[in-house]
């Protein structure tokens, strides 16, 4: 947040910064529709408290006074957590999730709840892409990605089980991170999937890391996990010596313009002296690509089985209100046996072992974030034959299966829309 030095020298204040954010929201929200709830009174109170701390020299953290949006899957004590479904309209838990509590303890200004797809799955909400309202912002962290792309706030929280941070972030020109599995505790999040990650959408790397770091040192990781590693300040930029291109199952589906733009990035890296390795260059990389080649199906089956008890309880409690797509997930869950689930877990573990085996070959992996720029919104897509209206997570499923850290950077533009590039480690 570029305002921090001005907060420190008194030429700006967290309250004044918040008011500028609210002005942007007032101007852009009628079209972008990224917020479910705004707690302006609570945010102003928190911003005033941060202003007083800066004046007194008692700053709590590097994000003290930063306005932040919270995906409406994560519990907040002062706002409803509706989870993108009318079934939970107005439901307020009166408790904070671990990540939100950590942000408050760091002095962040929790401004509101951002739109999510239904229960954080694929049935989309009303949010539009801030770069073209005819296009999807992606999902399921639709609102969190859109508020960053629209310049409404400097950071927002997202969650990912398959592709729900990286994909919308790439569609909306965010810098965003899905940390390694278990790095940030996800207690107080609606579903405890074995691939659940909490991450950060931001306008730049510095804000992204500051928010993640301040959460990590206060909330810790998932039970039994060591949590987030790293220092408070980003390390100086350093050129990698070798990078592996992760094709996954997405490469064969990628449109020509997006593939061409990505190849240009790879060419620029080669020109800078970075060795680029691909699946044909080493049998271990080929084995890795084979192991992640069914990541979409692995995610579908793992999530389907793990979602069963939640959906069964909802169907028993509410006779209507779930979308057809959500009911189809319940049908999938009912079709699976415990033996099926064990088999898909074995597939996932094999992919993780193959990933570990290539670790010594390069400094990291590089990949696209999506098979193309943001698809048309659902009402537009019906006329054009587009089926995946929040975007197909073909490149994201692999990193969720692996539990690896992934960052998307807004490096490309295709057909006038943002296209992100993933860096994976």
Automatic annotation (TrEMBL):
Residues 18-425 form the Amidase domain. Keywords: Transferase. GO terms for molecular function: transferase activity. InterPro entries: Amidase (IPR000120), Amidase_dom (IPR023631), AS_sf (IPR036928). Gene3D superfamilies: Amidase signature (AS) domain. It holds the Pfam family Amidase. This is Asp-tRNAAsn/Glu-tRNAGln amidotransferase A subunit. The lineage of its organism: Bacteria, Pseudomonadati, Pseudomonadota, Alphaproteobacteria, Acetobacterales.
């Amino acid at each position: 947040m570029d305002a921090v030095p001005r907060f420190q020298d008194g030429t700006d204040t967290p309250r004044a910064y918040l008011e500028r954010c609210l002005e942007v929201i007032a101007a852009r929200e009628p079209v972008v529709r990224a917020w479910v709830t705004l707690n302006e009174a609570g945010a102003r109170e928190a911003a005033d408290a941060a202003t007083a701390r800066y004046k007194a020299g008692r700053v709590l953290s590097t994000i003290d006074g930063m306005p932040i949006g919270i995906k409406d899957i994560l519990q907040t004590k002062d706002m409803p957590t509706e989870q993108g479904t009318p079934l939970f309209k107005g439901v307020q838990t009166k408790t904070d999730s671990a990540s939100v509590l950590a942000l408050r303890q760091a002095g962040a200004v929790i401004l509101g709840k951002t739109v999510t797809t239904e229960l954080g799955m694929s049935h989309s909400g009303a949010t539009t892409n801030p770069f073209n309202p005819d296009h999807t912002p992606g999902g399921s962290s639709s609102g969190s990605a859109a508020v960053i792309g629209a310049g409404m706030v400097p950071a927002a929280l997202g969650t990912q089980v398959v592709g729900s941070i990286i994909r919308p972030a790439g569609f909306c020109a965010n810098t965003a991170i899905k940390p390694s599995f278990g790095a940030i505790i996800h207690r107080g999040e609606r579903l405890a999937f074995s691939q659940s990650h909490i991450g950060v959408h931001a306008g730049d790397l510095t804000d992204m890391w500051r928010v993640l770091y301040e959460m990590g040192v206060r909330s810790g990781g998932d039970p039994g996990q060591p949590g987030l590693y790293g220092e408070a300040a980003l390390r100086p930029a350093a050129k990698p010596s070798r990078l592996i291109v992760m094709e996954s199952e997405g490469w064969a589906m990628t449109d020509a313009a997006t593939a061409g733009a990505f190849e240009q990035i790879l060419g620029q890296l080669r020109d800078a002296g970075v060795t680029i390795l691909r699946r044909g260059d080493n049998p271990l990389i080929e084995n890795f690509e084979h192991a992640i080649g069914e990541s979409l199906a692995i995610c579908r089956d793992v999530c389907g089985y793990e979602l069963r008890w939640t959906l069964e309880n909802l169907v028993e409690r509410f006779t209507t209100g779930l979308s057809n797509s959500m009911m189809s997930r319940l049908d999938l869950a009912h079709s699976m046996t415990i033996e099926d689930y064990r088999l898909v877990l074995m597939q996932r573990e094999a992919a993780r072992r193959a990933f570990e085996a290539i670790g010594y070959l390069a400094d990291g992996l590089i990949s696209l974030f999506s098979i193309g720029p943001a698809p048309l919104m659902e009402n537009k897509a019906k006329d054009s034959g587009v089926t995946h209206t929040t975007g197909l997570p073909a490149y994201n499923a692999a990193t969720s299966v692996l539990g690896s850290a992934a960052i998307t950077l807004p490096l490309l533009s295709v057909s006038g829309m943002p296209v992100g590039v993933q860096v994976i480690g």
